[in-house]
Design goal:
This protein is α/β, with parallel strands linked by helices. The chain is built from 24 helices and 28 strands. About 35% of the residues lie in helices and about 20% in strands. It starts with 9 loop residues before the first helix and ends with a strand.
Length: about 675
């Protein structure tokens, strides 16, 4: 675990005094909107506008000054509502005045091209010179409802109420959208931050700040693009030790150019970023609605770390209960059978016609419902209890029934909105999250279960570079060299011979048993099959000579060396690999290979190296169950052996700093375990 990043954000997010530089009394201008949002701030608040000050005018009733320099030593935070070209000079004046932090709202910086990038760098240099903590540029600002501070261009944010969820979004628009969505389900916010271009203040520092914030119980994280993925992962790891993080990564489809124009950062690999965030401990979801459901749950319910969390379903109506059960199954949350002692209790509490296992269908909720809920929640197989019951006055009081289960129960209901709002508020005081549909309830339960699983996985030790030090490979390896390196880790490779002449190739054919594969051996030829460099089922000298003729005729020539190997039998093929990602560094990948790729259409399993054995096993278990069991007559996959191979690739990627890619394709699954049939190891080493 790394140490927290540089702080000093207290006077940014909880200032005692604020100056609005560029404040305006003209409706429609950015400076007017910002002044309207901030004028309710209970601390000292100043409007900076030389024209208005010269005329002796106030702006929305605020004390108006010609320059921030008139407020030397009196301002913690400056909110700059000026155009981009004016920002460096405004920051210079803030620095001379002792301002500690600044929010730069204007666009036209790094997201807009070379000139904007140069302007952003100039602003960053000024801020660094005066040790000003800078949020933005190109941000709509932030909101801290608990202290009545709304540094945002949308005056409607002043209606937001305090609550337990913090929002950290790369986009100001997403920051606002999530804040209002949470407000709509009765969950307030502790701090809502739009990072914009992250010229100074970025993900890592705000996460560290939120980990220490006593008003924050859960964090909603929105990521478009990231330059330093490792720093983000470490900050997430530090935060989730204390508070859950729910993350949404944008960029599943081809939106990279749009995101770059938006925030000045390429979206990077969607799948790698999601895998890295999950590996660091964040609950990764697919939509803003899922973010809301997940943080609603996790802001009130967080259970002990464990590999799997069994959930119980108690429903007052069978139909919604079936929807809930189906959604939990889809999310991979176990709904285990109840112990016999529990079902014996339920038989005493429920009518005979009700379903008394898991899910538990109580029929119309009645007086026995609290006892039923307690019996089910106390079952040894159950870590979480999901309860659905429509609002039926006189039949069911959720506060009375569920209060004893606080910390382990989540609830959903339907009925008149005003009644549901009252229940939600009372249940929130008890620490029980309430949802409006079975699907939303399932998403909340799944998030709590996933958070517990990720924290359990985080406890597992990870591999380190061999001998504790980083080395360089020095060159891209040919296939024989690559397999020799892989074999040193304990992986299985075919019996082989290297031949530099036809005579040596003939001798090798005689020494190898069964059919032989012959390949061109040249580190410069990365895709041998594409140029006619791979020939299979070679048994005779004539077949060998024909293959050698084809290899020697490869356009552009080759090294004149050949690799002969015993041919492996048929079987399922996997692809095991590694790549050095620009943001996250070494990444290990596992996917289905051969003809099964298109048939099964399964996304690759990805993890940032170094790996723990638990992470490697999770990657293997992420393959389809049919593949694990032995797809189309293939032998079952040996989980431990494939995990060993993944760990080996991760160790090589972290040990050799110049390896940019490892491609073991294919890896044939045999009855004796995985066999590496081809190995490509690329180095970017330069003298």
């Amino acid at each position: 675990m790394t140490t927290p990043t540089r702080s000093g954000l207290e006077l940014l997010f909880t200032p005692r005094s604020v100056a609005i530089v560029g404040a305006s009394g003209t409706p429609g201008k950015a400076g007017y909107a910002m002044a309207a949002s901030l004028r309710g701030f209970p601390g000292r608040l100043y409007a900076v506008n030389p024209g208005a000050a010269g005329r002796g005018e106030s702006i929305l009733g605020l004390d108006t000054r010609a320059s921030v320099t008139e407020l030397k030593g009196q301002v913690d935070l400056a909110v700059l509502a000026v155009s981009a070209p004016m920002v460096p000079e405004a920051l210079e004046q803030c620095g001379q005045s002792g301002v500690s932090a600044a929010v730069v709202c204007a666009g036209g910086f790094g997201e807009s091209g070379a000139e904007g990038t140069a302007l952003q760098q100039q602003a960053e240099r000024v801020a660094a010179t005066y040790n000003i903590r800078l949020l933005g540029p190109n941000t709509s600002g932030f909101m801290n409802p608990g202290i009545g501070l709304f540094a945002n261009f949308m005056p409607a944010v002043t209606s937001l109420t305090p609550g337990p969820v913090a929002i950290l979004a790369q986009s100001g628009g997403v920051n606002l959208a999530l804040a209002f969505m949470l407000q709509g389900v009765g969950v307030g916010t502790s701090l809502s931050v739009g990072l914009g271009n992250s010229g100074d203040v970025g993900f890592a520092e705000v996460l560290d700040h939120l980990a220490d914030d006593p008003e924050t119980s859960a964090v909603a994280l929105h990521v478009e693009g990231i330059a330093d993925g490792r720093a983000l992962m470490e900050a997430v790891r530090r935060c989730v030790v204390r508070k859950p993080v729910v993350a949404l990564k944008v960029g599943k489809n081809d939106v990279g150019d749009f995101a770059k124009s938006h925030t000045g950062a390429l979206t990077g690999s969607y799948e790698i970023t999601r895998a890295a965030l999950s590996q660091a401990g964040a609950v990764v979801v697919d939509s803003l609605a899922e973010v809301v459901d997940a943080v609603t749950a996790l802001s009130m319910v967080r259970i002990a770390a464990r590999p799997k969390s069994g959930a119980a379903i108690i429903t007052g109506q069978a139909g919604p209960g079936l929807i809930l059960a189906d959604a939990l199954a889809e999310a991979g949350v176990p709904v285990p059978a109840l112990h016999s002692e529990t079902t014996a209790q339920l038989r005493q509490l429920l009518p005979e016609m009700t379903y008394q296992d898991n899910p538990v269908d109580t029929g119309r909720p009645g007086e026995s419902f609290p006892a039923v809920a307690r019996a089910v929640a106390q079952d040894p197989s159950i870590a979480l209890t999901a309860v659905y019951a429509l609002d039926e006055p006189g039949a069911f009081d959720p506060e009375t029934a569920l209060a004893p289960l606080s910390g382990h129960v989540l609830f959903a209901s339907g009925g008149p909105q005003e009644v549901l709002t009252q229940h939600r508020e009372r249940l929130r005081e008890l620490g029980i999250p309430m949802f409006s549909s079975p699907e939303a309830l399932a998403r909340g339960v799944a998030a709590v279960a996933k958070d517990a699983q990720l924290r359990f996985s985080a406890r597992q030790p990870v591999g380190q570079p061999a001998n504790g030090r980083v080395k360089v490979l020095g060159a891209t390896l040919d296939e024989s060299e690559g397999k020799r390196l892989i074999a040193e880790t304990g992986a299985t490779v075919p019996v082989s011979r290297v031949a530099a002449t036809r005579q040596e190739a003939h001798a090798a054919l005689e020494n190898l048993r069964g059919p032989v594969v012959i390949k061109v051996l040249d580190a410069a030829i990365l895709h041998k099959s594409d140029v006619g460099g791979v020939h299979i089922n070679i048994r005779t000298i004539d077949q060998l000579n024909a293959a050698l003729d084809a290899i020697d005729a490869i356009p552009g020539g080759s090294s004149g060396r050949y690799l002969l190997e015993q041919q492996a039998g048929p079987g399922l093929e996997l692809i095991v690999g590694g790549v050095r990602d620009v943001a996250f560094g070494p990444v290990v990948a596992l996917s289905i290979g051969g003809t099964d790729v298109e048939i099964l259409n399964v996304s690759p399993q990805l993890r940032v190296a170094p790996l723990s054995r638990s992470s490697a096993l999770d990657m293997v278990l992420g393959l389809p169950p049919a593949v694990l069991a032995g797809h189309r007559g293939a032998p079952p996959i040996d989980l431990e052996s494939v995990a060993d191979l993944l760990l080996a690739v991760g160790e090589l990627m972290t040990t050799y700093s110049d390896i940019t890619e490892i491609d073991l394709n294919p890896v044939r699954i045999t009855a004796e375990g995985p066999v590496v049939l081809d190995a490509l190891i690329i180095s970017d080493f330069q003298q």
